[in-house]
Amino acid sequence: MKLSYIILLSIAAIAYFYIQLWDDRLVTPQYLVLLFICTLYGRYKKDTNMTHIAGYIFVASSTTFIIFERGLINHVTPEENPLLQGIVIYGTQMAFSLITVCVLIFRVQLSRLISKSPQIQLTNFDGIFHWLFIYCSLIYLLAMLEHIAWTYFNMKSWTLIYDNFEGLIYISWALCCGGLLTMMICSPELKSNSQKRETS
């Protein structure tokens, strides 16, 4: 079986598994564990680019998870104002997602500020992951607009994003995990090609 087929199959399997669970209390920790494993693997392989890409995504995702798991948003927004509460919840998620987009776009520059490793360079994967978080940001924006329409304008039939919110986000997470898996598989080959270019 070709590598591309294995990758596509793994992405489909992860997406199906996440959607079947449909519970963020189960899916989110598994997603974070996969990100952490990829970060450790990059560290083990001494692949600075992989470590930083996976690490940035892990830090952003785990920070968002901690904020919502600790109920910090609930302490900020009053329960008697569902409009404001929804805006803050979706707005916070969108803000973190957009921050992650910026971090991933300028990943090489940030990595060079953090590390002096000569391995730091633009990889084929740097052009992938920020699109996933742009997609997530769009979902958060649509969810926030739908929430405003539902609460403020009393459009009770507008629940398309709300009803499918987890599934839409899980698709992005599955693609992210698939991309990281691909990066882990292809890392030795990419590293050897990079070393050949440096020596030539």
UniProtKB/TrEMBL annotation:
Keywords, in A-Z order: Membrane, Transmembrane, Transmembrane helix
Q: Which organism is it from?
A: Pseudoalteromonas luteoviolacea H33
Q: Does the keyword Nucleus apply?
A: no
Lineage runs: Bacteria, Pseudomonadati, Pseudomonadota, Gammaproteobacteria, Alteromonadales
This protein is called: Intracellular septation protein A
For this protein, the parts annotated as crossing the membrane are 5-22, 28-44, 51-68, 88-108, 128-148, 168-187
